[in-house]
Amino acid sequence: MGLMLYCIGADRGSMPPRGLVADETDETDEANSAIDAATDAATDALDTPLQAVSAHGLTAWVGENAEASQNAQDAQAALAFGRAIEALHRTMTVIPLRYGCVFADTAAVEAHLGEQQHRYRALLEELEDCVELSLRIPVVAAETGLGSGLSSGLGSGLGAAGLAVGLEMDLEPVTDSAPSGAELRRGRSYLLGRKQRLAAEQAAVRAAEALDQPLTGLVRRRDIESGWFAGQAMVSAHYLVPREQLEQVDAVLHEAALSRAAETASAPWLLSGPWPPFHFAALAELPPADSADHHV
C-alpha cells in the first residue's frame, strides 16, 4: 500500500508547539493536545487519516497511499497534501516534504529518520518558527514592456538597437557557403530575442537583489531562481522569514511592488505567502533511502 510522507518535526516530547513550554507536565500535556488537534485538522483536509511515526528524536506524519501513481496525477490530492501540511505548520515547526514521497511501511519511515536524523535536526533548527514569502518578478523583453530597463538596468548603454548591431557583426558570413538571406534573418531574429530575454532576466534578478538592503536583519535566508510560473517567465525571490518579522517583511515587499507598478507599465510583481517553507526544505531535501520513491 505504501505510506505518503507529509512532513517531519521534532519528537513530540522534545519540542512543544510554539508558544508553549514543556517544563511542567500539564504544559506538556497541553502541547501534545495541540499537536493532536493539528493532526486532526490535517486529517480533515484528506481522505485518509494521518499517523505520527516517532523515532530517533523526530516525528514523521504519514498517510496511507494505496494508489500513489494515480494520486500523483490528481491536482486535488496535491492541494489536499499542502493543506494538511499547513494545518500542522500552524502549530509547530515542520519540514514539509514534496508531494509523492512514499515509503513501503512504518519500519522504512523509522529507518529513514535514523539515517537522516542529523540533517533533519539541523534543518528544523534553521526553519524554527519561520514561514516562507515569495516575490515573483515577470521577465518581460524590451519589445513587450521592459523598455529602458534593458539599458539602465544593465548599465551597458545597450538598447534593442545596440543589441541588433552586435548581432549583425556576429552573423557576418565567414565562409563561401553562407546561409540564405531568409535564414540569416530568422537566425538574427532568434538570437536577438534570446539576448533580449537574457537581458530582461538579468534586470529582474538585479531588481530582486536590490531588496536585500531593506530586508537586512529581517529574513533568515533568501534564494533567487529563474523559471516559469503560471505560463510566464519569472524571476522568483523566496524568503525564509521568522514569524515575528513577517509583518515588516511583508510591508517592504508590498511597498517595492507598488513602487514598481507606479514607475512602469510592465507586468506587476506578484507576492505570495506566508506558506510553510517548502522551497527551503526542498533545497536540503534528499531522496528517501530504501523507499518506493515517487517524486513529482
UniProtKB/TrEMBL annotation:
Swiss-Prot/TrEMBL GO biological process terms: gas vesicle organization
GO CC, alphabetical: gas vesicle
Protein's cellular compartments: Gas vesicle
Signal listed as a keyword: no
Keywords linked to the UniProt accession: Gas vesicle
Family from the record: Belongs to the gas vesicle GvpF/GvpL family.
Protein name: GvpL/GvpF family gas vesicle protein
Species: Lamprobacter modestohalophilus
